[in-house]
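[Automated response] Your request has been received and processed.

Submitted sequence:
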Amino acid sequence: MRTMARALLAAAMMLLAGPWAGNAYAQAACANQGLLDARYCDEDGDLLADQPKDPKAWQDPASLVFSYTPVEDPSVYENVFDDFMQHLSKITGKRVRWYPAESYAAQVEAMRSGRLHIAGVATGPTPYAVNLAGFQPVASMARKDGSIGYTLQLIVPKDSSIKSVADLKGKRVAHVTPSSNSGDIAPRALFAALGVVPGKDYEVLYSGKHDNSIMGVVNKDYDAAPVASTVVERMQARGMFKPDALRVVYETAPFPRTAFGVAHNLSPALKAKIREAFLGFDFKKSKLAAEFKETERFTAIDYRKHWRDVLTIQKTSGISYTQESLSKLGKKD
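Generated structure:
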């Protein structure tokens, strides 16, 4: 009787408290959410979505879907990652399928909806994937010296009169997309600190992808473009333009490279296998080595540590991780 009385009393209190009571109970279920979407929780404070507490919410699909950031033509990289996907299949015992993401937003939405399980997400969009899709970064590509960074390079045609950021005033400059770290977010913050405000002091033209910006400068469709150094290096190595076709007039300190990781709700055992696949992959004997010539292996990363500066720049730029802001990532004009 006492138990029933307590239950009736609790129900009465909930009714008297009104709709706020339900919110209070929901909040109590998650001690810390941070910047994460309401569907996720971060009780351990690592800035990432926690593993769902209920094992019934864990995913253990028969087939895994893998995607690489659409920084260039997705069809180019399906073949490049073929060796790794076969290795991933062998380690996990599951079929691995390729998802050709056409935009940063599409990639994030695919993981958020449960259609994408493993992905390589570009530097700038990584916080969107973390906060809106429960993405958990696991690894990044590392050079021989262990570094995982790339730089923002401001490139211009070889015979351009532009010598510095100050010379961008009045020019037509290609930015990549609103979510690109090196292609939009960082230059907006860093160039403004140097006295040149993108969109005000020069015309911003979104190219959609780094390779579009680079080839646009090579062909003089744009006067300049802020891009990722690694993309410039790879395209040059493939012979897409001559080494002396471009000049770099500004370059930053290194930022972290593409984050490879998993959906937060994959089963812990499956996550462990995927991590094993990344860190144990023989990079040197793969197609990846031919494409990413400066890279030696996959190495473990710490999102909170390695994305600290990126998060600071995005916060300074007023970026918020919402569905509305995500919808803008796919816009290329």
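Summary generated for your ticket: Residues 1-28 have pLDDT under 50 and may be disordered. The longest strand covers residues 135-142.
If you did not submit this request, please reply to this message.
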